[in-house]
Amino acid sequence: MKKMLLAACLLLAALVGLAQNAVPADAFEKGMQQPDIQLLDVRTAKEFNTGHLQDALQADFTKKSEFFDRIKYLDKSKPVYIYCLSGGRSTAAAKWMRENGYTQVVEMEGGVIAWKQAGKALTGVAAGPQLSIPDFEKAVSNGKWVLVDVGATWCPPCRKMEPVVKQIVKEKQLKLVNVDAGKDTDVMNSINAKAPPTFVLYKDGKEVWRKEGVVTLEEFRSAIR
């Protein structure tokens, strides 16, 4: 009897602890308004493109290599607000993050389903046609130096690269061609770009350099010399 009572108490304590970190949609939305919040969607890219919360980053928890690669660009000392479709994946992801040094991780109870049931809007539904391969080829052939940036607003390392790309484009007077990793799959396949961010430099219409992942300013400068 005592063992059963102890087990029940431990289960209750665990549930209480979880409830302190999982909040309903209204409280989640209010918390998002704080400064320095990092908002993380751990659904698949396909799910993300059906609509997501404003300014959310995306890292698919079902693809562990992608998840770990992307979240390493989050600041462990700043709050992370995390969600998925119904709460299961975000709970598992949040547990791992707390155990690995992320100091404040808050989950949305019920995920996107609860968010929509509360009458709250989503943004970022993928729309419009893809960039065609002929249009892409025309763009990269029209300029002495062209930088192709395969990225997405929801990709954490892509966000990190934004000021670096802006600076090198201005500094070297490059033509910039953006390829949307969430939509322009035909172009990505044609140039064998497997994941964002991927950067490809063209000189006089021919590829001369590429790198997948974060690139330093010096790496860009060295490639353009």
UniProtKB/TrEMBL annotation:
Q: In what residue span(s) does the Thioredoxin domain sit? A: 111-225
Gene3D superfamilies attached here? Glutaredoxin, Rhodanese-like domain
SUPFAM superfamilies xrefs: Rhodanese/Cell cycle control phosphatase, Thioredoxin-like
The Rhodanese domain is annotated at 33-124
MF-aspect GO terms: transferase activity
* Signal peptide as annotated in the record: 1-19
Q: Does the keyword NAD apply?
A: no
Instruction: Establish whether keyword DNA-binding is in the entry.
Output: no
Top-level lineage group: Bacteria
Q: Which UniProt keywords apply?
A: Signal, Transferase
Q: Can you name this protein?
A: Rhodanese-related sulfurtransferase
Organism expressing this protein natively? Chitinophaga niabensis
